[in-house]
Amino acid sequence: MTITMERPPGRSAAPPPPGRRRPLRSRRDNLAGYLFLSPWLLGFFLIIGGPMVASLYLSFTDYSVLGTPEWAGTDNYERMLTDDPRFWASLTVTLTYLLASVPLVQVFALFLASLLNRGIGGLTFYRAVFYVPSLIGGSVAIAILWRFLFEGDGLLNNALGSVGVDTSHSWIGTPDTALGTLVVLNVWQFGAAMIIYLAGLRQIPAELYESASVDGAGRARRYWSITLPLLSPVIFFNVLMNTVGAFQAFNTAYIVSNGTGGPADSTLFYTLYLYQRGFVDFEMGYASALGWALLVLVAAAAAGLFALSRRVVFYGDER
Amino acid sequence: MTTHTFTARRGRKAGPPRATNPRQFLRHLTLIALGVVMFYPLAWMLGASLRDDGAIADPGVWPGDGFTVDGYVEGWRGVSGVAFGRFMLNSFLVAALCVVANLIACSLAAYAFARVDFRLRRLWFALMIGTLMLPHHVILIPQYMMFRELGWIDTYLPFVVPKLLATDAFFVFLLVQFFRAIPRELDDAARLDGCGHLGIFFRVILPLAKPALATTAIFTFIYSWNDFFTPLIYLTDPDLYTVPLALRSFIDTTSSSAFGALFAMSVVSLLPVLGVFIAFQRLLVEGIATTGLRG
């Protein structure tokens, strides 16, 4: 440092003094940084940002694939809110699905993670078994299986019949129960959340439990006062991710209902409705408006969860 | 070689002390019972795929008397005059391209974010994080129009090009986290040996980041293999169909008597994902635990 101080600042072309290497290097870093980042930058502007702006514009137009977009002001949004029962139906289906399955997934995942956490034999095996459904649950193959599981002469009713409960109720073909089968399918995939909970549970120091036991806290008390508060950031994370995911559920509803969202729109997920408007009816302007409405909904849900987290999530004293 | 992001988790077993034996037994019983209930449908599908179509409604798991591999033979013939093997090859091709594209593009971007000090880095990083939870549907329509305009319908470009441009922010984020955990002293040492950023990237960061790269590859493969929506809107030519789309057309063309073939090909379609899971179980589990990826 002293050496740099003694040298006059300035114009010698000779090897730059150590203190001045920083700006030079920084220019090189600038170039390198942007070169490394260039694919992402292109993607950000061409694949994400540009289309986002374009879809905002399209959402204010009337546009079928064949014609050109015609400015329609807020028509699409007005129609959505005041004159489109199927929009409300799809919103109801998605929210019902979300509110039913996200908490259930957490309950199952947390329960299983707690069972597996206390030094149980065969942990790797159990973990694998419960995780497999998460891996394949979104596939078309499993959606096909689900259809056969819950049809009137499907597996469930046959299994029920063999234990003496005779029913030909088509779980998937009846509006009241169709969505329920998809909730079950989502809950069936609790394994990924379970693994995240397991990792979270392992971070909780054993001493806390020991000293609580010494103080006379029972199992339930320890769970309520130690496990849940210390795990709350992980719970929040899982709820957030599962919520964002639930808004975008598509595959199973499509396969189970043959792309219709039936029976009686009871499995008309929001994304399925958007798909129908855009790629079946070719109402690209309206579909874009639905896309932006979804963005607003997801953002609102995330903001709501973050606000809630500030009240209930425990981040420890040191953070 | 694993860096400490991964090893830290296996530090020491925390949690309450071991329970007593009857409790232990009860826990195993609960776990096994639940496991059986969860796996019953899968086992049944496997059984049904090996069964005569007449006995398809049988709730039993074992194929029994009606045992036949006709479903596999019939299903492998494919649909719309295209063999099922072709669909599998298409799916493998798309998945492989996506994996390569993601590995290249996401690691390049992650290196810039984690290791290079350039202007506006914080801004770009914040924007990248912002795209993490962006619902794909908000960009769907213009993207579709753009790709259609470019003549990319019935090509695999709509699958691969977005990945080549690092739009899978989750993997960029995962790699950034991992790269940051690699000690900077290694960069400095490499720099003294005359390495520039490219040298550091290829000789220091990438070799040390193998676990994270493997996680990226595995999850990209699985997502891509299961992807139904992209082929649904971009592929119309049956010759190009990937497996999920082929299964959809199977349903449409399946008469009420050919369930064996439908189930057989459903089982076949699950095998690559299950294979990947069995081969890379540890990496998968760690990948989820550290990043919250869903699988």
What does this structure look like?
With 319 residues, chain A is mainly alpha-helical. Chain A has one domain: MetI-like fold (Orthogonal Bundle). Chain A has 14 helices and two strands, in the order H-H-E-E-H-H-H-H-H-H-H-H-H-H-H-H. Chain A has helices spanning 2-6, 21-58, 75-82, 85-117, 123-136, 140-150, 155-162, 175-188, 191-202, 206-214, 219-247, 251-256, 270-280, 284-312; strands at residues 61-62, 70-71. In chain A, strands 1-2 form a two-stranded antiparallel sheet. In chain A, a hairpin with a 7-residue loop joins strand 1 and strand 2 (70-71). The longest helix of chain A has 38 residues, at 21-58. The model of chain A is unreliable at 1-22 (pLDDT under 50). Chain B is mainly α. Chain B has two domains: 17-68, no CATH class; 83-291, MetI-like fold (Orthogonal Bundle). Helices cover 69% and strands 0% of the residues of chain B. In chain B, helix 4 packs parallel to helix 7 (157-164), helix 4 crosses helix 8 (169-180) and helix 11 (210-226) packs across helix 15 (281-291). The radius of gyration of chain B is 24 Å and the shape is globular. The two termini of chain B are 24 Å apart. Residues 1-15 of chain B have low confidence and may be disordered. The interface between A and B is large, with 105 and 99 residues.
